[in-house]
Specification:
This protein is an alpha+beta fold and 69 residues long. It is 35% helix and 28% strand. This is HMA domain-containing protein.
Length: 69
């Protein structure tokens, strides 16, 4: 299963901090950012992706995050 999110993360340093937090919270998932994409994509792959929890964690850290349709 793959979930793709649109974010407003602009800098690599910001994405690395979020990646660390997300990886600690969801250790079994493969997580990466594509900041070159116009939607600043957060891509999460794994057996059990919990989009609501991902969005809450990203937003709790001051960034926008929504499922990309």
């Amino acid at each position: 299963m793959v979930e793709v999110f649109k974010t407003n993360v602009k800098r690599r340093q910001e994405s690395q901090i979020l990646l660390l937090m997300l990886s600690r919270t969801f250790p079994s998932l493969k997580i990466n950012f594509d900041l070159n994409d116009c939607d600043k994509i957060l891509r999460i792959q794994g057996n059990e992706v919990h989009p609501v929890q991902v969005i809450e964690l990203v937003e709790k850290n001051g960034y926008q995050c929504e499922i990309l349709e």
